[in-house]
TrEMBL record:
One of its GO terms (molecular function) is metal ion binding. InterPro entries: Aldolase_TIM, BKACE. It comes from Calditerricola satsumensis. The lineage of its organism: Bacteria, Bacillati, Bacillota, Bacilli, Bacillales. The keyword Zinc applies. The keyword Transferase applies. Signal peptide: none annotated. It comes from the Bacteria. Its cofactor is Zn(2+). This is 3-keto-5-aminohexanoate cleavage enzyme. Keywords: Metal-binding, Transferase, Zinc.
């Protein structure tokens, strides 16, 4: 089986210190969580940015500081969010692409997101894809429901995304696809040959979805963005603690964990 690529989504846009007192807000705090997650075995760090009071921001300069701080300390693949937070404009959401990160997320359709709407109409999705292509940023397709795979493949047919295709199935968002094994198998079956996939189970679904991905040959995303608990009623100490558990489980079933450079090779990212 392919080596396991672990993504740590260390901060997100929605979760606050009301949910977990150790949610990182400042660039220094976010970088610390990211580096600890890398030390634990994460090859990809999925990044969001915050203002010092915790408000989500897509400010290019805040991302630049976070990226510089992480880069100084490790070789993880840094993947910026272009999802940002509900209600942000496409221009705001695209701002971190100016930094030409190795990777960025690309959601290929609109989905209800709790009480809000994560709005991704076709013209916006195409604009994001064009911008990523022009800047040499590898997209990771964020798939919140099955129709979004078709949205991603439409970009490929239009030549807006070329090369290796990598998908992240975000499962269990209220309004998106429920986190069930049947749904995961169905999602995987829709992918074209050669594509890779990871799963991000939300809340209590994080661990069971990760375990299914491990045995199915997929990859795994964990972290505070999607889940702040280690067990029912027990907060995780850190993002690293969530990564460490996945590393242990992978080793128990004989799956090796990919380094960032091995992940680059698997995902078609130039070294
Ligand atoms: N915060 C969500 C509305 C992404 O990073 O690309 C969108 C999100 C997806 O987190
Ligand atoms: Zn995100």
């Amino acid at each position: 089986m392919e080596k396991l690529v672990i993504t740590a989504a260390v901060v997100g846009a929605e979760v606050t210190r009301a949910h977990h007192p150790r949610i990182p807000y400042t660039p220094e705090e976010i970088a610390d969580e990211a580096v600890r997650a890398w030390e634990a075995g994460a090859a990809i760090i999925h990044l969001h940015a915050r203002r010092p009071d915790g408000t989500p921001t897509q400010d290019r300069d805040v991302y630049a500081e976070i990226i510089a701080r992480i880069r100084a300390r490790c070789d993880a693949i840094l993947q910026v969010s272009t999802g940002g937070a509900i209600g942000m404009t496409p221009e705001e959401r695209m701002a971190p692409l100016e930094l030409q990160p190795e990777m960025a997320t690309l959601t290929t359709g609109t989905v209800n997101f709790g009480d809000g709407v994560f709005f991704n109409p076709p013209d916006v999705v195409e604009r994001f894809a064009r911008e990523m292509k022009a800047r040499g940023v590898r997209p990771e397709f964020e798939i919140f429901d099955v129709g979004m795979i078709e949205g991603a493949l439409a970009l490929v047919r239009k030549g807006l995304v070329e090369g290796h295709l990598h998908f992240d199935f975000v499962m269990g968002v209220p309004g998106g696809i429920p986190a069930t094994v049947d749904n995961l198998v169905h999602l995987v079956r829709q992918l074209p040959p050669g594509a890779t996939w990871t799963v991000a189970g939300v809340g209590r679904h994080q661990l069971p979805m990760a375990v299914h991905a491990l045995v199915m040959g997929g990859h795994v995303r964990v972290g505070f963005e999607d889940n702040v608990y280690y067990a029912k009623g027990v907060l995780a100490e850190s993002n690293a603690q969530l990564v460490e558990r996945i590393v242990r489980l992978a080793r128990e079933i004989g799956r090796e964990v990919a380094t960032p450079d091995e992940a680059r090779a698997l995902l078609g990212i130039p070294q």
